[in-house]
Amino acid sequence: MHRLFSGAMVAAVAATALACSSQQATGSAGAKTHRASDQVTVAAGANVRHIFIIVLENENYKDAYVTNTNPWMGHKLQNQGTLLTQYYGIGHNSLDNYLAMMSGQAPNPTTSGDCPTYVDFQPSPAQLDSDGQAIGMGCVYPANVKTLANQLERKGISWGGYMDDMGNDTSREPKRCGQPGDPSGAGTQDHTQGATAKDQYAARHNPFVYFHSLLDNDLCKQHVKPLTALKGDLKQTSTTPRFTFITPNLCNDGHDTDCAGPDATGSKAGGLVSMDHFLSVWIPRIKQSPAFKRDGLIIVTSDEAETGQDASACCNEQPGPNQAEPGVTGPGGGRTGAIVLGHCVGAGRKVKTPYNHYSLLRSLENLFGVHKGGVDGKGHLGFAGADGLKAFGSDVFNKCSPT
Q1: What is the pTM of this model?
Q2: What average pLDDT is seen over the chain?
Q3: 288 falls within a domain
């Protein structure tokens, strides 16, 4: 169910959130989330410079990595890299997980509902609590809520988002980003909630279009492209962004079955089959690129386990001030698993350390040398700065010297 809020309701929620945020941010031991004393070995992955992330949809760990008979997720990627067996999403449905990966923001009811209508977050500018969480409601965050992309921009590190099918049908969305507060470019309604035969792009799987810190200054338009651009950008290290975020379309990411249009190999199967087809095309393409061969890392994960099947969590995940149950029916987004392969990472390994999307953001900030600012003063945004949260360390980067 999608819930929209009037200005009065938003103001009421914002006012009451302050009173309840301390209670909601209390963990099982009854202790408020504190800023982290980061003990992660940052230098463990210090030789990694080009990072590629592929986000798939709605698969639990067992289906994706244990019983999966498709060759890439079921076998090849596990043999080539390291399987994170205890990796979790942070909420349901899709959008809140993508936002958490890029900003450390916890779900609110509108982002949990996948934002079928673009509603600017209120109040604006956002009031941030001690965990860096914006207090209020809405989809498109005010400019004072920052993202990993903003952090990379400040450090002069190149980044890019590559969105499968984006711009195929300009009546649904433009080739880049829409107007501030309207990422679809097609009015206040999101016309990308469902797929068409020509265009299977979903704006809710593109985290960069939900932050005024990227929309108002045209950073989104400059850095977010259709996936078709990536093939050319991979030809040279100089044209390959240091951080590359890849969103397959609604068929290629496994979200749909009996797809409206074709997947990467022409099939309309969807689900695990089309996930595998996408990986069979793009993993070799990335691995053959000069940037990856030099110092690349690929991370493949899913946004969440299937909604209604698994709302479990790890890593002492806390709710934000606006929603008591990030997983709607539970504390998290369920166990999805993730694959890491490339520079510094061993092949055919399994790691049982608990990680989630906040851990991923923390890991990326560490790997890119973001050590200042953030909620903890050490560069970590939102819940990526939670006390005790682990970033990928020597358990994942087992082939690199820590110096």
Answers
A1: 0.89
A2: 88
A3: yes
Average pLDDT over residues 105-126: 94
Read off the pLDDT of each residue in 158-184 and give the average, rounded to a whole number. Answer: 82
Both structure tokens of 54: 């592929």
In a domain, 158, yes or no: yes
What CA–CA distance (Å, rounded) separates 106 from 99? 8
294: which residues sit within 8 A by CB, 6+ positions away?
Answer: 49, 50, 237
How many distinct structural domains can be found in the chain?
1
Is residue 188 very low, low, confident or very high in pLDDT (cuts 50, 70, 90)? confident
Please report, for the domain that includes residue 268, its CATH number. 3.40.720.10
Residue at token pair 């999966």: 68
Q: 3-state DSSP call for residue 88?
A: strand
How many Å apart are CA 59 and CA 195, to the nearest integer?
19
> Taken in order 293, 241, 354, 42, is the CA torsion positive or negative?
positive
- The Cα 366–Cα 362 span in angstroms is 6
* Residue 190: half-sphere exposure toward Cβ, Cα within 13 Å: 27
pLDDT band at 184 (very low <50, low <70, confident <90, very high): low
Domain of 152, in residue numbers: 45-385
Is residue 391 domain-resident? no
Please tell me the distance from the alpha carbon of residue 59 to that of residue 152, in angstroms, as a whole number: 30
In a domain, 37, yes or no: no
Average pLDDT over residues 299-324: 96
The mean pLDDT value for 371-391 works out to: 97
